[in-house]
Amino acid sequence: MEKYWQLLIFGGGFFIVTIASLRISRIFLKFKLPLITGLLFMGIVSGPFFINLIPAESVKNLGFINDFSLAYIAFAAGSELYLKELKHRFKSIVWITFGQLVITFAMGSVAIYLLAEYIPFMQDMTMQSQIAVALLAATIFVARSPSSAIAVINEMRAKGPFTQTALGVTVLKDVLVIVLFAICFAFGDALITGEELKLGFIFLLLAELAFSFGIGFLVGKLLATILSLKTEAYVKTALIMLTGYGVYLMVRGIKDLSLEYLSFEIYLEPLVICIIGSFVVTNFTTYRLEFSKILNRISHLVYAAFFILAGASLSINILADVWEIALALFTIRIIAMVIGSLIGGSLGGDPFRFNSIGWMPYVTQAGVSLGLATIIAAKYPEWGNEFAAVMIAVIVLNQIVGPPLFKWSINKIGEGHQRAGNQEFDGIRDAIIFGLENKSITLARQLKKHGWEVKIATKKKDLNELNAPDLDIHYIPQKVDVNTLEELDAKLSEAIVLLLTDEENYQICELVYEKIGTRDVVVRLNDRRNFDRFHELGAKVVDPSTAIVNLLFDFVRSPQATSLLLGMEKDQGTIDLEVLDPSLHGTALRDLRLPADIIILSVTRAGQMIISHGYTRLRLGDIVSMVGSNESLENVTVRFDK
């Protein structure tokens, strides 16, 4: 009973440290560093070598967290290996994977073996043990980080053959590296323990891999059964994570039983089992999207727990002695990847502009690499922690350097689609409405009435079809491009309204997002299924099928406020104003000396609405929502836009 009570205390303390560290680690993002770096740093600081919030005894008793996390990492890697998305670039993916895997593994093994006399924990090892360590370390060199790659791709909104190949190679390498690790782990253990590599041993190794694949298939079927249950998402999440942990318990049980009743050890690789199970769900069931959503929903907490525990387990005293070795190994890995990409890309038929920078997407390392390092550390406690310290130092270097290199390579190839920067306000509120119809004419007149300069862009050649001589109407070609937007002075616009078909609206919305940077884009939706596409581009979507119902609901629930917000109250209105006057920066709301009839509804900062009160201080770029008389709103507008 005392053991379980102690475990509860350690687990509770670790959970509190994890939640706090996850929050604090976000500071590293402001310095363009990956979140994993912050989590490892917090783990190191919280560990036994610094403030000891996670003592050494706690680290030993929380090993089950590693099992849960590693199972999740394998599930996440397998879920990204979706064959239908990779088939168009399959030749390049296979050859680049081959080049990266073979060259990196071969050069890494040789380099580490030759550097053995300079690595403290390898100096007194036998030659066989040094070869084993070199093989295991080189396997970790091959590993990549699918989660980091996906994060960069999503951030850049990257699309194209270079990006698709990079993602395919990343995921395929992580699948193969687990198989490679299983082989090297078995061979390395035989070398370290002095067992002879007989034919029976090789047969046993192949049999273990075959059984791992078979059990992985069964795990995939079990996961599909869990996903098919008519229950809440959190229940499915818990069952999926327990399934992964159950794989580790089963592997240990088979190992113990084989040692007790057989003359040899049977070791099935749990990472292979989990990744095959995830692969089956992703490619051979209808639950791929739901499975991915569940994994994404818990990714932050799982990675936080794993990386913080890895940081707390790190023998920080050893890092001071091995940083030169870590830097040398980091450099060797980069060189190997450059050679591997050139060879693989050339064999795959990719152009030289791809091959010359084709190594950059594969520098970053994270979950799988750390997972393999922790497995080795647990297997060989005599020197495993020192081994993990060196590997983690290399991984951290790769994690710092990798994402910026990947971003740069995407931009260099021209497959990045990031949001353009917002234009400075020129003192005139401009709006462009795409689509000529009665609604657009009415909207344009309403905006002009409130001091806006409005242009209507239409593909109709007969501009006299609707009687609107008081409006500025422009004919645009069927295919809208950047030149069309520039001719409309779109970069000067504060708002763009899209009233065309969904496909036409999306094409313009994407161009505005990438090339123009207009902050407010309003889209009238025609098909509800396209909502997410526009929402991802930051557009404000109006769905006519639900807008009237919502409006009627608001009138019933709060008729006065709704009338006010819709401008139906005489001489009353609302407005969003951006803080552009430097003299207002740092001013508290209570000190603004606004007209008596002005009420501040909200303050939005960096895209997030903040809880405001009288002592809230404004910053340049804040968006302040106000309500009041039209006359007072005009006076306040002059002050904010100054």
UniProtKB/TrEMBL annotation:
Keyword hit for Membrane: yes
Principal subcellular localization: membrane
Gene3D superfamilies according to UniProt: 1.20.1530.20, NAD(P)-binding Rossmann-like Domain, Regulator of K+ conductance, C-terminal domain
Residue stretches spanning the membrane: 6-24, 31-51, 95-116, 131-153, 165-188, 200-224, 233-254, 266-289, 301-319, 325-347, 359-381, 387-406
Compartment list: Membrane
Keywords on record: Ion transport, Membrane, Potassium, Potassium transport, Transmembrane, Transmembrane helix, Transport
Signal peptide annotation: none
Highest taxon in the source lineage: Bacteria
Membrane topology classification: Multi-pass membrane protein
UniProt domain RCK C-terminal: residue ranges: 561-642
Pfam families in UniProt: Na_H_Exchanger, TrkA_C, TrkA_N
Designated name of the protein: Cation:proton antiporter
Lineage: Bacteria, Pseudomonadati, Bacteroidota, Cytophagia, Cytophagales
